[in-house]
Structures are given as structure tokens and as C-alpha cells.
Design a protein that fits this description.
Structural class: alpha/beta
Strand content: 15-25%
Number of helices: 9
Number of domains: 1
CATH class: Alpha Beta
Order of helices and strands: EHEHEHEHEHHEHHHE
Largest sheet: 7 strands, parallel
Distance between the termini: 41 Å
Number of strands: 7
CATH topology: Rossmann fold
Strand order of the largest sheet: 3-2-1-4-5-6-7
Bound molecules: acetoacetyl-coenzyme A
Shape: globular
Length: 246
């Protein structure tokens, strides 16, 4: 079998779709998880039309048991997960003084606790096989904070803490663990930000435009490649220059 078995969570979203497509075009077998069957069917049909080796599995990243079952099913159908991209994410924006408890929990469960739920069932296999690639898709807002995103920024910052710890624990097993932190990319998530707010954000981007999902996918493909074997624990910011913290 050529290529590796890949799991990209939340593959039906804007950045997720671009990552799935890019890795499948490189010859990998790509699994993705979904929660909404109606959306997943149409998405899967589009991937098949492009002749890509893409497979969809029902799985709720906020639920450990669902992720354990999904990992078993992927292993049966495609082989054990060798490359994992923790990409699934949601927003429930509100200033903290207006934020409900559920808005906090939904975002932390789906964006941060998911990293444990999805990674835990596959990490032992990667260690046994002495090879693995794990990438967390975080956010510029995990690095700089954002008005209205205490939940999201906290979860996204937490993802990189997860990355750095896992990188240390697994380096001697041939496993690299990195974070990619996209800025504002033209996806449904960003287009849902009120237009006048979005325009102010774009005005802060030196490149003068939103990012393209493919620009994020390209970086992920680089990090999961064979040649990136010495890059681990890194946080790659891709944000058109909006935040240049170092
Ligand atoms: N800085 C300072 N003050 C701000 C502000 C900001 N960035 N944004 C809003 N405010 C202030 C307003 O000026 C206003 O102040 P006054 O009451 O004193 O006039 C107050 O906050 C209320 O603002 P809104 O009318 O906008 O209030 P709201 O409660 O309806 O909405 C919000 C607040 C949800 C934060 C809304 O402004 C918003 O959606 N902002 C965008 C948040 C954002 O960038 N989300 C990113 C989503 S995409 C993503 O997350 C992908 C990724 O990784 C990059």
C-alpha cells in the first residue's frame, strides 16, 4: 500500500477540506470525522468525484468513547492512524460577561478536550510502530487573544501546550508533534463574523487579505512529510503578518 493512513478531524469544514484534499493528492488514505450526516454525504460525494482516497467516519471529537470507536473502525478499514491532524473546531463568540456556561463548555470540549479524545486512542500504536505525525490546528487568537473569544482563545492556546508536552514525550519514538496557527482564513467560520468587524480585522493584516484554506493545507503537508522529521514542538503562525510574536 502506498501512502499513509491519515485522520483529519472536522475534515468537512473550510480548512479541513483543504487539508484532506492536499494530503489525499499526495497519495495518502485520508479518513475524516463528521457529526452532521447530511453535510458529510454531499461532501463525500464531492471528494469521490475528484477521485480522492477519502473516507468518512461518524465520530464526535468531544466524546472519548466515540473517538475510541472511530479509531478502531479506521484501523479495520484503512490501517492504523499514522498521521493525525486535530483540526475540528467551533466558535461560540461572546464577551465573557455575556457568555453562557454552555458556550464555554462547547468550545473547550470540541477544540481542546478533543485533542485528548482523538489522540489518546492512536498514540500507543504510533509509539509501537516508531513513526507518527501529529498536528494541532490552533489559531492566531490562541496566540494573541481576541475580544469575544475567551473560550476559543483559551482552548486554542491550550492546544499548543498539548503539542509541546506530547512533542517531548514522543520524540524518541519517531513521532513529531506540531501546531499550525492560522490567522483569518476565508472560511464559513470567518465569514460568520459580522461584516463591519471583519473589515476592521482585514485592515490589520499586512498582506491586506484573508488567507486561503490551501495556504494552511500546504504547511500541514510540509509538517507531516518525511523530511520534517526534526521539526517538533513548533508553532507555525500563518496569518498574513497580522501577529508576528516570537
Ligand atoms: N475591541 C474592543 N472593544 C470591542 C471589540 C474589540 N475588538 N469588539 C467589540 N467591542 C465592544 C464594542 O465597541 C461595544 O462597546 P460599547 O458597548 O462600549 O459600545 C461592545 O464591545 C459590544 O460590541 P458588539 O455590539 O459587537 O457586541 P456583541 O455582544 O453583539 O458582539 C462579539 C460581540 C461577539 C465579540 C462581536 O463583536 C464579534 O463577533 N467579534 C468578532 C470576534 C472574532 O474575531 N471572532 C473570530 C471568529 S473566526 C475564528 O475564530 C477563526 C480563527 O481562528 C481566526
Amino acid at each position: 500500500m502506498n501512502g499513509r493512513t491519515v485522520l483529519v478531524t472536522g475534515g468537512t469544514g473550510g480548512i479541513g477540506t483543504a487539508i484532506v484534499r492536499h494530503l489525499a493528492r499526495l497519495g495518502h488514505r485520508v479518513a475524516t470525522s463528521f457529526r452532521d450526516p447530511a453535510k458529510a454525504d454531499a461532501w463525500g460525494a464531492a471528494m469521490t468525484e475528484e477521485d480522492l482516497d477519502v473516507h468518512i467516519f461518524q465520530g464526535d471529537v468531544s466524546d472519548l468513547h466515540s473517538c475510541e470507536a472511530m479509531a478502531r473502525e479506521i484501523e479495520t478499514r484503512l490501517g492504523p492512524v499514522e498521521i493525525l491532524v486535530n483540526n475540528a473546531g467551533i466558535t461560540r463568540d461572546a464577551a465573557l460577561h455575556k457568555m453562557g456556561h454552555q458556550q464555554w463548555l462547547d468550545v473547550v470540549n470540541t477544540n481542546l478536550n478533543a485533542c485528548f479524545n482523538v489522540t489518546r486512542p492512536v498514540i500507543e500504536g504510533m509509539r509501537r510502530r516508531q513513526w507518527g505525525r501529529i498536528v494541532q490546528i490552533s489559531s492566531i487568537n490562541g496566540q494573541k487573544g481576541q475580544y469575544g473569544q475567551a473560550n476559543y482563545a483559551a482552548a486554542k492556546a491550550g492546544m499548543h501546550g498539548f503539542t509541546m508536552s506530547l512533542a517531548q514525550e514522543n520524540a524518541k519514538f519517531g513521532i513529531t508533534v506540531n501546531t499550525v496557527s492560522p490567522g483569518y482564513v476565508a472560511t464559513d467560520m470567518v465569514m460568520a463574523v459580522p461584516e463591519e468587524v471583519r473589515e476592521k480585522i482585514v485592515a490589520q493584516i499586512p498582506m491586506g487579505r484573508l488567507g486561503k484554506p490551501e495556504e494552511i493545507a500546504h504547511a500541514v503537508a510540509f509538517l507531516v512529510g518525511e523530511d520534517a522529521a526534526w521539526i517538533t514542538g513548533a508553532n507555525l503562525a500563518i496569518n498574513g503578518g497580522q501577529d508576528m510574536g516570537w
